Structure formats: C-alpha cells, structure tokens
From TrEMBL:
CDD domains given in the database record: STKc_IRAK
Keyword Membrane in record: no
Ranges of compositional bias, category Polar residues: 1-13, 21-34
Protein name in UniProt: non-specific serine/threonine protein kinase
GO-annotated molecular function: ATP binding; protein serine/threonine kinase activity
C-alpha cells in the first residue's frame, strides 16, 4: 500500500457524470420534500410509535478496523456559527421544489421509497426466511440480508439482534426511520420501509451492490480507485451532506460520516448510509447555534469540539468529512495503531506533512505520482485542513466544501488532459525521429 504503484496495475476509472454545475446544484430550486407528503407523514407517525432496536450498518462490518463506534460513552460526555446558520436557514426556506437533490437513479422500481410498512410475510418471502445464503453483512446490532420484493426490487434488509434490545437502541431505530422517511437524494441510500412485528425490528433500504468505500480503499475488490474516482466520490458525499444540512429549517446532522458508511454503485456513484445517529440541528432563526447532546459517532472521525462541549452543529459533519478527505487521498484508516506513534492518527500526520511542504509523501502509494495527482492532492489537503480546524467557526460549510471540490476537479481534469497531450506529442516526436533514421 505504501510503495509506488506499477503503471500497469489495474485502476478503476469512474464513468463520466451527468454534467451539472455547482450553481445549478445549489440553486433556489435544488432541494425538496417528496410530493407524497401524506405518505411521508403516515410513515413518520407510525415510526414514532415504534419501540425497537437500531441496526447499525447497511453493509458488511468494517472488519479489522481500528475505529470503534461510540454511543453514550461516559468518557465522551460532557465565518461564525451564527452567521453560517442564519445564511443556511434563509437558503433552506427558499428550497421548495425538486431538483438534483430529489433526482432518482435510472430505476424500474415500482415501489415508492419510504411508503411502506412491510408485513412479516413480505420480509420472509423477500429473504427466503432470512436464509443464510442471503446474508450480506453482520454488524454489532444485527444482520443484513439481500432480498427481492414481489415487484423485483432488490433491497437490503436490516434485521436487529433480539439479544441487544434496549431503550436507547429503540430510540436510534426510530431516529433512522424518521430521517430516512423524509429524505430523498441520489447520493443517499433510499428507504423503502420498515417492519415492526412482535420482537422483530427490520429496516428495508436500497441494495447498493458494490461494497463500501473503505473496502475499495483496502482493495478488497481487487481494483484500485484512481484519484479521479476518489474526487468524484468526495463530491457525491459533499452533495449528500449539503442536502441534509440545507433540507429544512431544521437541518439534519448525520453524525457518523465515515468510509464504511459510504456505499458505491456499479458506476462508482457514492451513497451515504446509516442514519441511526442522525439528529435535527438547531433552528438558526431562533438564534440557537447548537444542540446539546451526548456524543455519538466513530472514533477517528469525531469533532473534538463536540467531544469537549457536547455542542453538536453541522460543522461536526464537516470535521468528519475532513477526515474522510484525508482517508481518500492517503488510503489509510483514520487510526492506524500499528504504525509508529507520530503516524497513528492519520489526519494529524497528513496535516503535519502538508504544512511542512511534504504533501506528496502522504499520497496513497498505489496512485501515480504525476502532476495532476500532485495538484489535486495539495488542494484536497488544503480543504481538509480547513475542515479539521479545532474551532467550528473556522470550518467551511458543506456547501462551500462541495464548491471547492468542483473547482479542484475542473483543474485536475485540465492538467490531466494537458499531460495526455504532452505524452502523445512526445511519442509522436520519437516515432518521427525513428522513421527518419
């Protein structure tokens, strides 16, 4: 992982995205609730009565990871925010019609996402009685099965362990249901419904077939994600989080942005998953700048100011996104306990290298060390440094992160094209010289 990559090594290129500009992404008409508000309200009302358990992940667990989920740990208790919040609040009020944030993938699904409270018979039929052959993942709170609904829709069925039922897990289950039922964006995992039956607690979501970002950074799927693909993924995630933060006058804070919660499609589009820790943010119009809450999240990604003060804002997601950016360009996990002491906290190590003018040494050795990659690396680490600012007031908004990443991708593509033209000219010149000889 940490030596130069052979140019002949397999590398995964991301297909071209449907072109749209940052300004259109964040236009006044860029976000919306779904038109079926009656169905949404019915699901939300039913969800509030659910007493159950939250299943922690949509996908196979992040095995061997040095990161540990934190939930209500005793050890963890305990631009300006106001101006950013006020600005975001006014932007959210203007968002009233469907745009890119409500765009569907190419899909033949007949079932409207989030519109169903499933029966136990439907779940058993979809998973063939929770057949072990349909199992696709195992987490701390339960098991994930692949399923097929009667209309042919492929889904992921998250089934809770009966042995881990308790009150706070029931709250997380309800939180996930409420959040999933009201959001819809092409870079968020779609929610199809849930089941409450006796002691069964099940969430049914979109099946995303290509594994997690962390798996691809670890090369579990054999292919190496090139930097262009990683930059596209960063932009997808930035769009998803921006949508959550700007969705209503009460923005949604995800609280668990990490590579194992980023799922990839066959075309390497990123989808953010796992809303069990999601919280509604403070209403900025009331003058409140944060929500006071017990700390939840994953070690290595947690905002240190949130850890210290219990004050949760959208900027806590921005911090986690900064860690994710470092993870994307280095290929390393946020915490690597087997490395020497100064390299164990990847973000801290990478930021030190960057500020010392040695950013190139942080690049994932599987990636080519060419001019385009070096340019993008410098700019991505510069953005990460802003996201990882110790004080939330000094961090950019997620909207600003997305805009900067768009600019980085534009420059990256221009330099890459220039490099290809130069290489082509060089080969052409050598061929002419050989013929003349």
């Amino acid at each position: 992982m940490y030596g130069g990559r052979n140019p002949s090594s397999a590398s995964r290129n991301t297909p071209e995205r449907v072109p749209y500009s940052p300004s259109s992404v964040y236009s006044d008409a860029s976000t919306a609730r779904t038109s079926s508000s009656g169905g949404r309200k019915a699901v939300s009302a039913a969800a509030r009565s659910v007493a159950g358990v939250f299943v922690s992940c949509f996908t196979p667990p992040d095995t061997g990871s040095s990161t540990k989920s934190l939930a209500d740990s005793d050890e963890s208790k305990a631009h300006s925010v106001a101006s950013d919040g006020s600005r975001a609040g006014s932007e959210r009020r203007r968002n009233s019609s469907r745009g890119v944030y409500a765009t569907q993938n190419n899909s033949t699904h007949a079932r409207e996402p989030g519109s169903v409270k499933f029966s136990i018979e439907e779940i058993l039929k979809a998973t063939r009685n929770f057949s072990p052959s349909f199992k696709i993942g195992q987490g701390g709170f339960g098991t994930v099965f692949k399923g097929r609904l009667e209309d042919g829709t492929l889904v992921a069925v998250k089934r809770a362990k009966k042995s881990v039922y308790d009150k706070h897990l029931g709250v997380e289950f309800q939180s996930e249901i409420r959040t999933l039922a009201q959001v819809e964006h092409l870079n968020l995992v779609k929610f199809y419904g849930y089941l409450e039956y006796g002691d069964e607690r099940v969430v049914v979501v979109e099946f995303v077939p290509n594994g997690t970002l962390r798996e691809h950074l670890d090369c579990i799927h054999s292919n190496i994600l090139d930097l262009a693909a990683r930059l596209d993924i960063a932009i997808d995630v930035a769009h998803a989080i921006t949508y959550l933060h700007m969705y209503t006058d009460h923005p949604i804070i995800h609280r668990d942005i990490k590579s194992s919660n980023i799922l990839l499609t066959e075309n390497f589009r990123a989808k953010v998953a796992d809303f069990g820790f999601a919280r509604l943010a403070a209403d900025s119009d009331s003058g409140v700048t944060h929500v006071s809450t017990q700390v939840k999240g994953t070690a290595g990604y947690l905002d240190p100011e949130y850890l210290r003060t219990y004050q949760l804002t959208e900027k806590s997601d921005v911090y986690s996104f900064g860690v994710l950016l470092v993870e994307l360009v280095t290929g390393r996990r946020p915490i690597e306990p087997k490395r020497e002491l100064k390299e164990r906290i990847t973000a801290k190590w990478a930021m030190k290298k960057f500020t010392d003018g040695d950013a190139v040494s942080t690049l994932d050795p599987r990636l080519e060390c060419d001019s385009a990659n070096n340019l993008a690396l410098e700019k991505i680490l510069e953005l990460a440094l802003q996201c990882l600012a110790p004080r939330r007031q000094n961090r950019p908004t997620m909207r600003r992160c997305a805009e900067i990443l768009w600019s980085i991708r534009k420059d990256y593509r221009e330099v890459s094209s220039s490099d290809i033209r130069s290489l082509s000219s060089s080969f052409s010149g050598r061929s002419t010289s050989i013929r003349e000889q």
